[in-house]
Every structure is written in C-alpha cells, then in structure tokens.
Amino acid sequence: MIGTLHETELHAALKRHYARPIDQLEANVDGYVVDVLRADGVGGIARDIIEIQTHNFAALKHKLPRLLEQHAVTLVYPIAAEKWVVRVEANRRTVIGRRKSPHRGHLSELFIELVSIPQLVAHPNFTLEVALIHEEELRCPATGKRRSRWLRPWRTFNRRLLKVVDRVALSTPDDFRRFVPPDLSSPFTSHELAAALDQPDALAHKITYCLRKMGTLDVVGKRRNAWLYAVNE
Fold first, then answer.
1. Distance from chain centroid for Cα 18
2. pTM of the model
3. Same domain, 84 and 98
C-alpha cells in the first residue's frame, strides 16, 4: 500500500488499533497520504483524519496545517510506558536475548517532538493523543566499520506493539496546564519547573517553549539570566 514501504510494525499496529472497519487506510487527502481517513457511516463522507507519528514531528510542518484547513486531525504519538529490548542476529530473525528495559516512559516526553509544531495545539481542528504502550524494541548488530569506541554495537531497526495501556487526548492549550504542577510557585523558571517535574532541564526548556508558543504560559520577567513564566489565566 501507498506509504507503507518503510513502515515499522509499531506504526502498522497502531493504525489497526485506531481504525474502524469502515475507515480507509493510507487514503489520499488534499494531495497527502494519511494513515486513517475516518468516515461518518453516511455515504462514506470523510469526517476526520488520524495520523500516527512515532517520531519526527518536524516532517509534519507542512502537511498538518494544510489538512487542518478542512479536516479534524488527531495526531497519535506512542510513548513506551514499559519496553522490552530484543536482540537478534544480523539476519534479523534469530533471537539472541530479551530483557526488560529500566526506562519508564512518561507523558512529558511528548515535548521532545512537539517542540517542532507547538503552535498547532491552538488550532480548533487539532488534537494530540498520546498512546501509552508496552512495546518491544528490536535491535540487530550495527554494520560497517566502527570508527570509534563510542559507536554503539547495536542499532534499533524495528518497534513492535505489545498493547496499548492508556490514551491521553490533549485538544486545547488549557489541556497542557497539567504539565505545570499546581504547587509550583509563580512566576517560575525552566529550571524550577524541571525540579518540580523531576525531569532534566533540557526537557523543561522544551516544555516552557511549547507552552509559551501555544499561549498557555506568559513570559513575565527575568531573574538574572533566566526567563520567568506564569500560567496564562
């Protein structure tokens, strides 16, 4: 099918999870191929679009604004709440080992990608839905000559959905207020937000940037070299 040549198992499985029997997969809409074109059941009239994006929101910078002119679009982004790492031989078929990763994904990871398109959150036709999942990450030996001791000997070549454990829909800028803890004193810096969320400063900077772009946060001053933010009331 169109658009499925380099599709990962995770992407394909999420399409099946979200699509209903009457929906169209890999449909052509306004010159773009969309993952799921939802029908309303009356004459097959298109109602809205579901796009699955496992990474690289930057690739949607031109596609989504065009689709949002005429359609309601739900962008689905999966985050691994739990993950198992599966190592296979170079043939990508023979399993060498399987272990559970200590990493636990959290909702705020969405800002790693959302930083590319934060302004779209304010569009009335746009919804971002995070699918919290259990997944397998498939790794095979890295090919080619290793140039340095820092190059990882294994590389990820596929992701496999085990199950969807939760779905969190974020439809308006107000929905993103949840990322500012209510007990955080206002105004606050990105560093203070990072401490309150128990997340790295780099991620907190992405959060404050996105919330400011979508109108949830205001810049209200400066403390030394750090910007001060307050939730827009």
1. 15
2. 0.88
3. yes
Note whether 102 and 163 are same-domain residues: yes
pLDDT, tens digit, 9 for 90 and up, residues 134-151: 999 999 988 765 555 555
Phi–psi pair at 134, nearest 5 degrees = -105, 135
3-class state of residue 72 by DSSP: strand
Q: What 8-state DSSP symbol labels residue 10?
A: H
Domain boundary among 118, 142, 171: 171
The tens digit of pLDDT for each residue in 163-197 reads: 999 999 999 999 999 999 999 999 999 999 999 99
Is 4 inside a domain boundary? Answer: no
Q: How many domains does one find in the chain? A: 2
Q: Name the DSSP letter for residue 152.
A: -
Residue type for position 188: F
Q: How far is CA 210 from CA 14, 36, 55, in A?
A: 26, 27, 17
Q: How far is CA 143 from the centre of its chain?
A: 28
Name the residue range of residue 214's domain: 175-233
Q: Which helix (H) or strand (E) holds 18?
A: helix 9-18
Q: 196 is written with which tokens?
A: 């309150």
Mark whether 111 and 134 lie in a shared domain.
yes
Task: Judge contact between 77 and 53, C-beta under 8 A.
Answer: yes
